[in-house]
Design a protein that fits this description.
mainly alpha, 7 helices, about 80% helix, globular
Length: about 120
């Protein structure tokens, strides 16, 4: 969490990072472990969706994306534009792409495309 803080401050500013850090700390040790476990569950679900061939607008993938948005919202609640931008970064930034694609290549792109649909219809 802390190793990306200087970069986050450059991208989004001190206030956004301070709010995010405060939200993270409020989770406590058990909440942080749960948050990390849910992240891995989302990555695995996206990988499975890629392998099965689900589309971004499928009910199955939209359920994963709703969970992803809810997971993010424990720390920071993105509006539709921010959510689309964030998931585009997951594709553009190799560090994030590697994380989401660890189970199946293409998962980061599926998340991005599904988030765009989700942002249009649910946010």
């Amino acid at each position: 969490h802390k190793k990306y803080e200087p970069e986050a401050r450059d991208r989004w500013g001190d206030d956004a990072v301070a709010r995010s850090n405060a939200s993270w700390e409020r989770l406590g040790d058990e909440g942080k472990k749960r948050h990390q476990r849910i992240d891995q569950e989302i990555v695995e679900a996206l990988g499975a969706a890629v392998r099965v061939g689900f589309t971004a607008d499928s009910a199955e993938v939209q359920e994963i994306v709703a969970r992803h948005h809810a997971w993010l919202s424990e720390i920071w609640t993105p509006d539709a534009n921010a959510y689309r931008s964030l998931t585009q970064m997951y594709v553009d930034d190799e560090r994030f792409r590697a994380h989401y694609d660890e189970v199946a290549p293409g998962a980061a792109e599926l998340l991005r495309d599904a988030a765009a649909y989700y942002a249009m219809s649910a946010l």
